Amino acid sequence: MKTNLKISNVTKIYPGCVANDNVSLEFNSGRIYALLGENGAGKSTLVKILSGVIIPDQGEIYLNKNNLKLNSPLDAKKNDIGMVFQHFNLFETLSVFENLIIDSDGQREGLRGKIDTIMKKYNFSIDLDIPVLNLSAGQKQKVEIIRCLIRNPKVLIMDEPTSVLTEQETIELFQSLKKFSEEGILIIYITHKLKEVMQLCDEVAVMRRGKLVSVSEIKNENIESLANKMVGQNLKTIKKKKAKTSSDQLIKITNLNFTSEDPFETNLTDINFSVNRGECLGIAGISGNGQSELFQVLSGEIISEKNSIEFNNNYIGDLSPQERREYLMAFSPEDRLEQAAIPQMKIFENVALNNFKSSNFFNNGLINENKIKEHSKKIISDFNVNTDNIELKSQFLSGGNLQKLIIGRELITSPDLLICFNPTWGLDVGAINYIHETLIKINEQNKSIILISTDTDELLKLSDKISVIHKGKLSKIMNSEEVTSEKLGILMGGAD
Amino acid sequence: MIKIVKRGQPSRAIFFFTPVLAIFLTLVAGGLIFFILGFKPFEALKFFFIVPIADKYGFSELLLKATPLCLIAIGLSFCFKSNNWNIGAEGQLTFGAIVSGGVALLFYEQEGFYILPTVILAGAIGGMLYASIPAILKTYFNTNEILVSLMLVYVSKLILDYLVVGPWSNPEGFNFPETRQFSDSAKLPLLFEGLRIHAGIFLALAAVVISWFVFYKTYLGFQMKVSGLSLKTAKYAGYKGKKMIILVFLISGACAGLAGVGEITGPIGQLHREISPDYGFTAIIVAFLGRLHPVGIIFASLVVAITYLGAETAQIFMQIPKYTGQVFQGMILFFLLASDYLLFFKIKFIGLKK
Q1: Rounded mean pLDDT of A226-232?
Q2: CATH of span B2-349
Q3: Contact B238 A325 (CB under 8 A)
């Protein structure tokens, strides 16, 4: 039986932002549809409307010509619309089977048989009786998918499903999705990754600032054309010039170990690497494999043995972040809103968080507000932060502008080494380009970067050398020309 | 139809308006309560809020009550602004009073300019010591500071009880549960003949100025602000977040201790069982009513101080128990929390839709 899903003139307005502006779309089963757009383009709002999480201000949804009134996620489920969210909604301490029972309206009879059939059909192999916390991200996603399949959905919506997956898991996911589509399930795939759209989908709808920009066949598109539609302008492609090989060593990590008391943190074992001047070392890995701990050890939030970190011929393993800044190190943490900046504080107050001695932000224990403001204005103009009001609370900056502010704050000391952790996470293409250009510029000025990132493309683009972190251990360090994303994927999955 | 809409950003004007609204609603509700009890609401409210401060003596009493409230609330504002929930100011006040009272008793037959400063200092140190207990337990053993600081209130009151009944009780006092009277050198000087208002008010005013300066103008204050808003950011910036936690507790303990000194070396002049009508708890309301801002706290402490006085006049003239004062304090907090809803949401009246 064919499924036809129609969205007609859907509008959703939030204070100060039109999330969906009169969007109309039609989907037919047997094809895989991509819904493409930058962060904030309105694609999440649209699928949340389809799954009953958000109620639109105007507009109708029709499934096989029936007008649906979706007032809750339960309504969506009853109407055979299944959704797998980007963040898993599973109970970690319950077993896989128990998690599946919760969502099956209490019909336990024959449930296990049904699940077994589904798993056999699509080649899933998951032990139903172990707690969910022991599963890998890919397996957890499969549990979520099974949860939808139990209800024999007509529509399956996947929201940015590959952000937590390895290359191999992604390939497996795509195979399953194609199979579902052949079985007649209508698949809507939300992403901002262009490569995946090209690989997987048949038709693509692009959204920008709440509006539907285009609907087209994949065979008529390529990555550049889609990127331009997504951003709305012609993007220049950034290429890094190959660095002059320098042998002037800047930082050297020797036998660094970290054992955490917190069971949810990852221990670091035997970390060894060095970075030369003008070089960018990329550290790849699936999130949660010790990146955050490595960042903290390097920044001084976690103190280690004095001799384990040698920077510019000084042993600094036991120094605090503030003391390390005096040796010309700079840090840009992953979490912009909870760590790198304080949203409730004004822009210039956030600038004062990088308090190196020569800044004179604080004289004799008093705040030197004029100095801080002067500095903040310089950062805002030098780094293209899109505001002229340094008294603005930083929560009102977009992610891209906040990241520019943070990178600017860190670079204003002209440090010898910048350590950044997922610097473009969640940013739109324009901002990503800007940050990438800035990082390349740093290398050109013979300064070094340690780039910890979960975005493989970013690493391949910016790094001179690449290593992979898996379960707190670093792989051997490779020259980035010798590395492909497939090879990184294998290493990220833990193989040697 | 009424629709409730979330505000894009909390409104600055509403931020200062809601305390006023809360006080207004408290008056309305208070009038209603009096009416139900069979009094004329306006007359009763007049007895409660205007009669007590209508003369010079009443005004002096108002300042007398507002002084400890203001002092403690200033200290608490340091804790609350940095997300440390010190609920035990009453205990810190009591312990500060015990330590300073002990020192004052050492000098009970002596005169000298050095006695009063020593006694005041002892009170501040006592309050700090007592506040350091929840602070250290919180930072090094992950205990909950709300529970620890609150329970320590009762411990300090029992210690005071034991001391005034036992070892420190006045040998010539016919077994009354009180100590000797302190010598005049251990007492805060009175400001006016015949009025009870004493030099303690300068301690409170100094605390207001110093706290404003420290919090808004110094690096230390900046670090406290950052640590309070996000410990993760503090760690990243290289601040010593744990030390900041202990520091804000010490500041608030010192202020509460000083308030205790002000009570026993001012109007009371000795230690006995009832040195504070729960100033330490009421100051929590003052701190929030004053929006944790030094100037706001001055006004809030005056408003809340009236409820103490009003309760007494109401008891005398209308024969209603003085605990109505606490009812009013409770209502202020209740309405303040309720009207804070307006900070984040606005109420829209829209036409009936078909």
Answers
A1: 77
A2: 1.10.3470
A3: yes
